[in-house]
Amino acid sequence: MRILITGAAGFLGSHLSDKLLADGHEVIGMDNFVTGNPDNIAHLAGNDKFIFFKRDVSNYIFVPGKVDAIMHFASPASPNPQSKSGYFNLPIQTMKAGALGTHNCLGIARAHNAKFLLASTSEIYGDPLVHPQTEDYAGNVDPVGTRAVYDEAKRFAESLTMAYHRFHNVNTSIVRIFNTYGPRMDLEDGRALPNLLKQALLGQPLTVYGDGGQTRSFCYVDDLVNGIIKLLYSKEHLPVNIGNPVEMTILQFAEAINRITGNKAGITYVDARSSRDPQRRQPNIERAKQILNWEPAVDLEEGIRRTIPFFKSKLGLA
Ligand code: UDP
Question: Which of 239, 241, 58 is nearest to 158 (CA)?
Answer without folding.
Answer: 239
